[in-house]
Automatic annotation (TrEMBL):
It comes from the Eukaryota. Residues 103-137 form the Disease resistance protein winged helix domain. This is Disease resistance protein winged helix domain-containing protein. GO terms for biological process: defense response to other organism. Keywords: Repeat. It comes from Cannabis sativa (Hemp). The keyword Repeat applies.
Amino acid sequence: MALELFSKKTFRHEFNGCCPEELVKLSYEILKKCRGLPLAIRAIFGLLSRKKKVQSEWKKVLNDIDFEFKTNSQLVGIFEILSFSYVDLPFHLKSCLLYFGTFPKDYSLSKGRLRQLWISEGFVQVMEEKSLKEEAEGK
């Protein structure tokens, strides 16, 4: 899920929104460093979307991330706190939260439109006798 959202945003104007084969392994390594945290993923794909889509550029970003984690204790602490909150979310809510990363900063979106988008992406699953809309609304 994270790689799909990462790819849609990072490669939205090229490669048909898909990660090129030569960058898939590096993408997974970078996402692993982000520990699945939407805030970290968003920051990284914002950075990578402005970089050349070549291995040398992406390896440099991966090395920079490694360096920051090893030398910046505050950054590690922030990631640990965010990770506790994210890990505790039910799976379907993780997908919904990650989806916010596909929108630009300060993007305005109505609840109704967001529900429609979540339903169309398949993030909303009906467990009982509810409509998709009711499930998306949490009723």
